[in-house]
Amino acid sequence: MNIRQVTLQGDKSPAINFSTLADIFPRYISKPVLITITKELLVTMSLLLGVSLVAFTILFMAPGDPFALLLGNDGSLAASEELKESLGISNSWAGQYFSWLGNILQGDFGTSIRSGEDVFPSVFEATLNTLYLTLAAIFITLSIGFPIGLISALRSESVMTRSLSIVAYAISALPIFWLGYIAVYVSTTYFDYFPLASGFSDDGEVQILKFLFPVLVLGIGSGMISEVVRHVRLEISRVMEEEYIRTARAKGASVWKHALKEAFILPVTELVTSKIPFFIGGAIIVEQIFNWHGMGRMAWQSAQDRDFPVILCITLVAALLVRGGSLIHKIIYIIVNPRASHE
Amino acid sequence: MRASFLHQPIELDIAQTRSIWKRADRGDLLNIAYGLIVLSTVLISYIMGTFDLLPYDPEEMDLDLMMMGPFTEGHLLGTDFMGRDMMSRLILGTQAYFLPGMLAIFISLTLGSLLGVLAGYEGGKTDKVVTYLNNLIDSFPRLVLILLVVAAFKPNIYYIMIVVGLTNAPIVAASIKNKIISLKQRNFVESAIAMGFPKHTIIFKHILWYNCRALLIIQATLGMAEAILMETSLSYLGFGVQEPTPSWGNMVQAGSNYLMQGDFWPSTAPALAILFTILGFHLLGDGLNNVLEGKK
Known about the structure:
The structure holds two protein chains of two kinds. Chain A is mainly α.
């Protein structure tokens, strides 16, 4: 006990060989942390299994017989039964679910009813396109929302804070589809550039512009800016009242260095990972406006065509993104804050 | 001495509820006032639409008066690209989301309270099951799940609102659960149990009615904002209300065809209606939250 006190008092070198990164991410990952991470991994897998069950069941309950579609005009009930038998397809829910699950575990998501192609490669490509869009948009949202949240946490009652947060609320209530049209109008009228040209061509300069408008629209119009402001304000004002911040301030150390972990890294990872579903939702509309070949457009098209294999695959991939994001958040949280593994 | 000490907290509680509006932050009160104005406008519009008390026939075209801006004589909010009265169409547009939104709110509040009570009051294994269910619902991006349902069944606004209600339930459940956990540390739950009140009385009367109704009202306003957002988005995507029946979403969509020619009003008017209404419900919910639940 005494030794500890002495070293604390005699410690003159400032808070000390404080290499920030090493402080945030400890070099050794202890056993309880590993166990917790493994548990989270298992939970994630069971949730994905649950998602597959729910999604499959919804489509199983759908009215109409997909085999009637396959048979065309002579799709009588007897003919469809015969076809099912010849293909070895079970009539029961469990039989169909498990054979489908077995297939997707082997990477076979079936073929699209619309195009007749394998579902997985096209969904994979679309998912990558959507990921570029959503990640860039999340960056935009954070770079607008974080400073506003920071300012309002530090100066909570000023007029500027008030008006900034009302502006954030108003932007978040803006319908994204209208914002998209305005962006198209502005870019065609003032920049003489039509952002609807689809796909990713190779001419570098235009590509950035192509990227910029949809990303800005999704970043501003996703409705998440006010959430970011609120979350950041809450977290930062909470952290600023912690005792270690007061101590740091009292001894003249850099407050930001101490607050970085709890007031920046954790809120940002939480926001990035927990808002993924909302950005994917917004991406559905933005991709529609800008003719962006992503997952959202594909989901819209497949809902239009009742293309069950495609919409199932997209649902699973979207859930994988959501769960993956949440898993990453939990892993970072536990590594940064190993105490959480004992809870 | 002892007796007065026992009575004190109760008197304090009453004093607090009385002055809660007086002690409230002025900005919060302004937000609530704005939200209430929006809420009553929506309600009045819904009633006007139901009883057909519109200034004009919303489907009557006047080809001499197309694309008129606001404050045109006879048409306070102008006309759209077919010369139909904008105000009548905006008023009738509330029909598209109001009742379906109520369904979504009803589902999210009932299911959310049920899950929240199970998780918070029972705890233990039940809590784990509820957490799993909440995480399962949260794993679906909302619009993707709606598109899945649209693909499976038909694009029906009530199916869509059932999904919206279900996907809102985890948020309600989480707030009820946290509230119950904090309530359980206070004595009245323990004394109610000791006095032999049946479980359902404690849960429904003491916990949900006395202590969670403010929370439920707040969640209901936020749920309405969510329902409006979803209805307009889906009408925009073509899975909601179809022309010529007006919905704010399909009005933006139809009006946007004329935007490229520089005619902003037909798509901007419904977009502003969406903006002000969603903003109103958000500010109302947050303002009430700050005042009634004391969260800053």
